[in-house]
Structure formats: C-alpha cells, structure tokens
Specification:
With 424 residues, the protein is mostly helical. The chain has helices at 25-46, 54-79, 87-105, 108-132, 137-158, 186-194, 200-211, 216-234, 236-246, 248-253, 258-284, 296-306, 311-356, 361-380, 386-389, 392-404, and strands at residues 179-180, 214-215. It contains 16 helices and two strands. α6 runs antiparallel to α7. It holds the Pfam family BPD_transp_2.
C-alpha cells in the first residue's frame, strides 16, 4: 500500500514517468562502472591525474557528507509535506553546538551528539511555526536561517571568546573523530595508482580514496542513507509519514495523527542538518568558524531535488557536488578543464538518448549543440580561469537541476497548508 493509494474519494495522483523507468541495483552498478570508464578515458587523454586520485576521491567524500546530511534532512521534512529551507540555519547551529560539545566534554562524539541536538532545536522551532501555527514554510525557513546565524554569533562571543585559542568568530581546536582504513591495501593500491595505467590505476585511486583514512563520522553519515530508505519505505512508520506528505486528509481519515508525524519528520530533519554542521566543525576544519556552512544547506536541498526526493539519488547528487568542489580546491584550472571533456561526452550521450529512446528530435538537437559548444571550449583552451573554478559547484548545481527537472516529482502535498479536520 502506498500513500497515493489512501482512500480520499478522488482519483489517484499519476506519477510522472511511472512505469517507464525503474532504477535497479544492476543498472546502478552498470552506471557506476560506465562513469569510472569515462573518468579513466578523460584522465588518459588529458593527463589530469587528479580526476581519479585517492586524494581527490577522499576529499570529495568529505565534502559530500555535510551536503548529503543536509539533503537527508530536507528529504525527511518534505516527505512529510513540510518545505524546509531552514536547513542552512540548522546546520549553522550544528557547527557551533558540535564544537562546543566536543570541547566541553573533551570527546568528539559528545560534539556529534551536541551538533544533532543543536540542529534538532532549529527543526523544532520550524515545526512549531509551520505545523502548529500554520506559518508559511518559506517564511519560517528564512527566519530559522537568520536566527541560526544570530544565535551562534552571540554564543561564540560569550563562550569561545573566553577560551584560549578562541575568538568572537571561531572556537579553539576541537578533538576529532578517529580515522580508519581497510588494513593491508593502502600500499599496493598506491603503487598501482602511481603507474597511471588505463582503468586499473584509476580503480586503484578510487578504491584507495574510499577505503583508507576515512573518518568514523563519515561512515556514520553514509550508514544513514540506507537507514533512511529502510525506515521511510519499509516500515509502517515511514508509510504513515510519507502519506502525510501526499494526502494528509486521507491519512487523517485512516487514523494517522498528521501533526505528530510532521513534527517527527521536521525534528529529525533538523537533527540530520545539525549532524552535517557538526561534521564541518569536527572533521572538515577541526574548529568552529563563522560562515563555515557556506551555503551547503541550500546545496543539500539541490541534491535532494536532483535525487527526486529519494535517498539513493540524493547521495549521488551530494557526491557529484562534493567531487566538483574537491577538484576546484585541489588543482582547479587543470582538473576542471579536463572535466569539460567528460561533460561534453555525457551531454552528447543525453542527446543520443533523447533522439533514439524518446524520439524528441528538437530537444536532441539543442542538447547536441550544447555538447559541441562544451567540447569546443575544451579544445580551444588550456585551462579554466580561477574565478570560474571557484563557483564550479554552484554552476554544477544549476546545470544538474535544469537537466533533471523533467523527471522530478515532489510529494503531492509538499508545502501545502494543513489544518486538522480540514476537508477537500
């Protein structure tokens, strides 16, 4: 039984693209394998070894984690019908609380818990405003973002400024969660990666980046993706919660306490965003700094939309944004320039798909022209200006959302006002 199947006296909502495509594990593995081959081809012809280096992959995972956690937070909230653009403010609360808890108790895991609680408080405020008082979701989210920034600025001045090594805008260094590696594989993979062989060296670099020097916090964050899928799509609790984001009136008629489930979803959403903030202060930077989130809450929302409000797609979107961010931070001009060749190949593949499978000639011509333009830029230039590489993740966000827009389907009642006992 699905949320759209709840009886409302109205015809069921038709899902966009239903029955035309279903992502399976087999297709996912084939897609990942094809992407690795394309990266290897791009690296081989351009000489940009950082595309598949262990350092770039390790950095990409670390940069993807806070985006993914923010996106998971948005997913929980919006699956229950509450738009949450306050994720940025909840992340900000998590960055401060994570650093404070880690310093106060001299334990990084106390900081992890404190970061989740900090974000949870922001989520609770958002739930009270939107669920109990019916405040517009966007207005409430903007208010949470402003509150998060203002509260942490004040708290920093009364706590961190009094500590040795701290200040009005930053905390002293904080204890970090430990790193783990799969034993016995680091040196062999490093040796194979250094040979720069086609595909084999690329696989070695990717595996070494994924399996060595990984933070325990990162492992926790990755585990939350399948856990979210299981809870929301394989349990009665998840079914009821999702029904509140699809047909809340129908859910109420079947005995579901819609307010309770919306509260639970938004509070969990805040806690996940807070964990994303705590990751920034405990792992990414080893200290709290003002402005640390740098819009990652909004990029997390973009990753959630890219993933079509599903955990697996969201994780892929977060990794995409983390990867482009990692490349521009390491060897921006060279790596991003090489990435243009990969982008041209992918856009050309989309054009072929549109022409052969969907028989959309006009769209295929436009997409093909875009592929030619990107390839021309790659062929006629030697590097990408630094001013452009610094905004690569944000440009990637816009491009991905524009390409994915036609297959998206948000929860039917997402963002719509709901009052107990209302009828449609």
């Amino acid at each position: 039984m699905s949320a759209s199947g709840l009886k409302t006296g109205q015809p069921p909502v038709k899902r966009a693209g239903a029955g035309t495509f279903k992502l399976t594990w087999q297709l996912l593995l084939i897609g990942i394998g094809a992407l690795v081959v394309l990266l290897s081809i791009t690296r081989f012809f351009t000489g940009a070894d950082d595309l598949t280096s262990a350092g770039a992959i390790n950095a990409a995972v670390a940069l993807a984690v806070p985006i993914g956690l923010a996106g998971l937070g948005g997913l929980w909230s919006e699956r229950a019908g509450v738009v949450n653009i306050g994720l940025e403010g909840m992340m900000i609360l998590g960055t401060w609380a994570g650093a404070w808890g880690s310093i106060q108790f001299d334990n990084p895991w106390a900081g992890v818990l404190a970061g989740a609680i900090g974000g949870l408080v922001g989520g609770l405020l958002h739930a009270v405003a939107t669920v109990s008082f019916g405040v517009d979701h966007i207005i409430s989210g903007v208010a949470i973002n402003i509150l998060g920034l203002g509260i942490t600025q004040f708290l920093s001045k009364v706590t961190f400024a009094e500590m040795a090594g701290g200040g009005d805008t930053q905390s002293p260094p904080v204890p970090k969660p430990g790193l783990v590696s799969v034993p016995g594989i680091g040196e062999p993979l490093a040796d194979l990666e250094a040979r720069h062989w086609f595909l084999l060296s690329d696989l070695a670099g990717i595996l070494r980046g994924l399996l060595t020097n990984v933070s325990l916090f990162t492992i926790l964050a990755i585990a939350l993706v399948p856990l979210t899928f299981y809870v929301l799509w394989r349990t009665a609790f998840g079914l009821r919660l999702r029904s509140c984001g699809e047909r809340p009136v129908a859910a109420e008629s079947l005995g579901v306490n819609v307010y309770t489930y919306k509260y639970a979803a938004v509070v969990i959403s805040g806690a996940l965003a807070g964990l994303g903030g705590a990751f920034l202060s405990l792992v990414a930077a080893s200290a709290y700094r003002e402005g640390q989130t740098a819009g990652r809450g909004f990029i997390g929302l973009a990753a959630m939309i890219f993933g079509n409000w599903r955990p697996g797609g969201l994780a892929g979107g977060a990794m995409l944004f983390g990867y482009t961010d990692a490349l521009q931070l390491r060897r921006g001009g060279e790596s991003v320039h090489a990435l243009l060749l990969l982008v041209a190949i992918l856009i050309a593949a989309v054009a072929v798909y549109q022409l052969v499978q969907q028989q959309r000639t006009q769209a295929a011509v436009i997409t093909g022209a875009a592929a030619v333009i990107v390839f021309a830029i790659f062929a006629l230039t030697d590097s990408v200006p630094e001013q452009f590489t610094s905004v690569t993740p944000h440009i990637t966000t816009l491009l991905v959302l524009s390409l994915a827009a036609q297959r998206l389907r948000m929860p039917a009642a997402d963002g719509l006002p709901y009052r107990k006992g209302q009828a449609k």
